[in-house]
Amino acid sequence: MTLDPYAWCQRNGWDLPDTQWARTAVGVLWDAFGPLYRLNSCDAAEPSTNQPTNKENIMSEAAKVITVDGVEYRQAVAPSEVRIVVLQRGWIVVGRWAQDGDEVVVRDASVVRFWGTTRGLGELSDGPTTATKLDPAGTVRANAAAVVLTIDVDAEAWAEHL
Predict the structure, then answer these.
(1) Parallel, antiparallel, or unpaired: how do β-strands 92-100 and 65-68 relate?
(2) Residue 56: which residues within 8 A CB-CB, separation 6 or more?
């Protein structure tokens, strides 16, 4: 018996539009995560009665949070990378970037008080110039909505300045 992933989702309370895009998306997700479901199910063709539906398990992609039986689990924060972060109101900081849900954390941060560049802010991606002025700021925390843009930088060039 072949299982139609789109029909399975509808039977289990997923409110999906009947479009080719939705069917394709469900098919791709099923190919990726279906084996995990089938490993945890006694019957691969139909969901078992003890398998929770999306009403009990809710995943927030933006925050990387999943709730299972009322318990909230967060994705572990990966080691941070060095970035220049432009925040609202003109604040520019450089440091070890990490994002956890709606919070952005820049550790070992410095506020870039004076760029000291001739080719704009992007020139600092290769490290500070001799004219760049940095003010140590420790750990900077901001709401993700306050981030205007980030610039990936050469971590080795910035290592001695963080």
Answers:
(1) unpaired
(2) 68, 69
Question: Distance between CA 102 and CA 25 in Å, rounded?
Answer: 26
Q: How far apart are CA 85 and CA 124, in angstroms?
A: 12
Cut 0.70: pTM above it? no
Mean predicted lDDT score pLDDT of the chain: 76
Class of domain 81-161: mainly beta
**Residue 76: what pLDDT?**
60
- Examine the pLDDT at 117 and tell me if it is beyond 80: yes
Instruction: Please report the pLDDT score of residue 100 as a whole number.
Output: 83
Segment 26-38 shows an average pLDDT of: 60
Nearest-angstrom CA–CA distance, 125 and 39: 46
Give the burial string for 139-156 (b: 16+ CB within 10 Å, else e).
Answer: ebebeeeebeebeebeee
Domain with CATH 2.30.30.100 in the chain: 81-161
